[in-house]
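Priority: low. Protein: Oxidoreductase molybdopterin-binding domain-containing protein. Input follows.
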Amino acid sequence: MLLRNLALLLLLGLMPVAAQTGLAQPKDIILTVSGKIGDRDRQEGKSYNLAGLTEIGTAIITTSSPWISGRARFKGVLLRDLLTRLDASGHSKVIATAIDGYSTEIPAEDIANYDVLLAFEMNGVPLTPRDKGPLWIVYPLDDHPELSSVEVNYRWIWQLKSLEIR
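Result:
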């Protein structure tokens, strides 16, 4: 009994240390990236919690969407910046997969030519699974009329959980 209580006390004492070191706890992981990424991450892929994504840098896009009324202000990480951080040069497309298994292809040209955003906030409110979060791929439709197509609409994947770089 004494040994069990000591083990529990030790475990509880170490929990704040793990939190302070910035280690992503499994429940905190909101995005995994695999495929054609830099050598150091190629084997296992890379996992991100929200803090890890925001360290890359954030951007804001104000646009309308087929899934919302009017315009909204989205905050998130540019997909282009994430791929640069991962040394994912030479890719031809990104396969984005949602929590429910839905997947879509995002062409490299979209990433290079448009500010494709991995949004985690809409109008200053964090996105949750109930409202298309924790991550939602957002295109700047209002700035680029050529993006107003059904094909591009299918790329607005919400409840994003993983990206595979090809």
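The chain has six helices and ten strands. The chain has one domain: 24-165.
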